[in-house]
Amino acid sequence: MKLHDLRPAEGSHRKTKRVGRGHGSGKGKTSGKGMMGQKARRGPGPYRTFEGGQNRLVKRMPFKRGFTNIFRVEYQVINLDDFETWPADVDVTPEALLAKRMVRKKSMPVKVLGQGELGQALTVKAHKFSASARQKIEAAGGTVVELPWVVERHSRSRGPNPSMRNAEAKKAKG
Length: 174
Known about the structure:
174 residues; alpha/beta; two-stranded parallel sheet; elongated
């Protein structure tokens, strides 16, 4: 075998399409570009967000960077030093905290953080605990009860969705 014997594999090289070389070739005159207009011109076509000269959607949208997780769970935080004056015989619950105005919203879960010290044994019920808070409560002789938090998924349509929202209420009634 010599250099002049080398050939590419059969079918791996195709002849280039020669456009604009007469109507007998099938690609003469307009070279497969049809009649005039923006798409018949040289170069790439209009950019992908082009809307015919109208102010395009990406320009009409507010300029915002980053990402917002729509499924995040925001907690109302409360520290251990807020329990200094708490009576020992009363459990610390989200309802009791709401009654004493230590948390503001019933619709948000409560998280206990470990800032401060706990001098008495308390039963603390909350939806989430930091590791240091859990350790300090148990070191003081108290107990930690983690409550479940069920996220209510709202209807993705704009209107109300009573069939889904009131499903549990209907089960309780009937």
